[in-house]
Structures are given as structure tokens and as C-alpha cells.
Known about the structure:
Blueprint: H1 3-10, E1 11-12, H2 34-44, H3 50-55, E2 59-61, E3 82-84, E4 103-105, H4 121-124, E5 129-131, E6 152-154, E7 162-163, E8 175-177, E9 185-186, E10 195-197, E11 217-219, E12 240-242, E13 263-265, E14 286-288, E15 309-311, H5 324-327, E16 333-335, E17 356-358, E18 374-375
Parallel strand pairs: 2-3, 3-4, 4-5, 5-6, 6-8, 7-9, 8-10, 10-11, 11-12, 12-13, 13-14, 14-15, 15-16, 16-17, 17-18
Antiparallel strand pairs: 1-2
Helix pairs in contact: 1-2
Amino acid sequence: MNGYHILNKCLCIAATFYLIISVCSCESSYRSGNADIDNILNNLVTGEKTEAALADIRELDLSGLNIDSLPPLLAHCTGLVSIDLSHNAFTAIDLTKYEKLARIDISHNKLEHLSEDFMTADSLKNIRILNLTGNRIASIPPVLTKMTGLQELYLGYNKLSAVGRELNTLKQLRIANFGSNEIKRFDMTNRNIQILNIEHNQLRDIPEQILTNRLLSLYAGYNSFRKIPDSIVRCTALTSLRLEGNDIWYFPPEMQLMVGLKLLNLSACNISFIPAAICVMPNLETLYLSDNKLTTIPSALSGLTSLKALYLDNNAYTSFQYNMKYIVPSLRKLSLKGNRITDLPSYIWEDTNLTRLDLTDNPLDPAVIQSPKVTFGQSLLPEFDGTDDVVKL
């Protein structure tokens, strides 16, 4: 690997700064030591203006280098606005020299906590995005309460057991990810959150205090929820609701008032019928009902007048006699993978508005069904992947 490629990995330089590195043509290698990075920089950035040149750098990428501390030479990068230290071996971090930082990515390291003095008090207020995903943090770091300008916080894949009210002081916080922890108690009442991820935890109830008219997207799959609270109707701005992997038995009738909802995921919720409350959502476009015990399609589904994609994979259908053209005329994509369908009327794929029908892993003879709309034994095209969500957390 030559010096150019290693520098390209280490430094993302602002458009106003150009670094000429043609002076170096020798082969260089990296062996997980800070001295190696310093040697590379010393070889490539030389002369009287070295410090000034480093001070002009706005974005720094040191991800995936297996380092556990910052190279000393980088202390001159005082103009940094964004730093990526992800996928390294940091157990502690000192960013006190970088007072202009607005975006910090320390994900996938070995942090057990975040020190109160890892940055200066004034610079803490400048942070807008903080990514601590994939560390070993067991409690909310108190220093987070001082990041009054924080807008996005990512704490997924840690060891959190509780989220208290300490983050209520973050009035600018809009995106919060606490997914894939061990959370049993969630008391945060920050009513400014727009996108919240609490999936893959151990919560028994959906925290009602976070169900506000500002919430746009809620990821709450794979907890231990048994019911959807009536207060869900307060989420008048909600467009995406993911509750998959919960054993839900109660769906409040008020759900039909959630007219802004566009995506609903109720896969693996142990349901044997499609709840009436979700059959009259006029703006719902994508509905996931896979991995349940469904055997029928209710005529009430016609209330989903905007539905475009319906996922019924791995249910208990043995036959499918429903002409979706007349039940849900707007439907374009239907997935029935992994059922036990042995017979399918031709009108299902001929007299239809569907553009994609997935019958993979059903005991059907593909030779009988000849249609470019039908998929057997392969994934559907990318437009059928169901990722039309507000944001990917």
C-alpha cells in the first residue's frame, strides 16, 4: 500500500485544502501503532507549514485502524469539525484539543464509559451528532447532559439496562437510538424526539411518555410488549411504526385514527387474524404481517386505500383465493413466501394490478404459473425490499 492510499484513509480534507503528496513514492505499511501513522504524515506533510496545513483539515477518518489512542501529530488538527474513530480499540478518548467538533463517531470500540473531561465544557455544546454504538457502556454517561446542542445520539449495541430522565435536558435531540441493549426501564420524557429506536431490549410496555405528536418513526420491535397502548393515537405525525417480534394481543380501535402512518410492521407478533383497527388506515403504504398464523384475508382490508406492498411470508396459508385487485386495488407488491399454498387461481397473477408476486418456498409447480410478475426461488427486485422508511437507524 503506498503513501497516497494510507493518507487517503486517514485524512478527509476539506475542499479548500489540497495536499500534494507526490514527494513520496516508497511503499509504506501499517502495523496498528500510532508511530506508523505519524511517520506517514511526517513523510507526506513536510516543511514549515506542516502545522498550518493540519489545522486546515475539517474532516478526519481514522476508522478501522485498530488504534487505541490518537497519534500525537494530529494534535495540530485543531480545525476538525468531524472525526471518525469507529472500529478501533479505544478504551478511553481525549478530544480536548478539538474544540470545533460537531460530529463524533466512536462506534465499535471498547469504551465502558465516557469521561466528563473528554472534551472542554464549551466544546461539548457544539456537538450535534454522537455515535457510541457497539461499545460496552452500561449506563448513560453523565457528560451527555452537557451536550445541549446534540441532535442525534446513537447508543445501540451497548449494555444499557435503563434510560432515565437525564437526557430530558437535550432540547435539540431529534434522533435517539437505544436499540439492542438490555433495557428494562425507560423513563426518558424528552418530547422533542422525532425518531426513536428501542428495539431488541427487554421492555414490557411501550413507554407512553414518548408517544407524542412530534414522533415520526418508532422502532420498538423484539421486546416483550403484549399490547399497544391507547395513547398511541397521540402520535399524529407518526409515519413508521415497527413492532415486530412482540407477542401482541391488544390493538386499540383508536389506531384507525393514525392517518399519517405509512409503514406498519407487525411481523412475528403471534397474531392469527388481521386486526380490524389497522384495516382503515387510508395512507398506509407498506404492511408487514410475516411470521404469524394468518390463514385469511378480511374484506375489511379494502380500507387500506393507499397500500402498495403487503408481506404475508411464513404464515399458514394453504390456498389463496383472493383477487387483490378488488380488495386492495392500490396493491402492487404481494409476498407470500414460505406458506403452504398448493393451489392458486390464475386470476391472482393474470387479472391483477400487481407488479410483483413472490411465491418462493410454496409447494406450487412453477411451470404452471408463467408470468413475469411472479417470483419463485429468488429474491424480488430491490424496489420490493420494504426499506421505504423515514430513516435507517
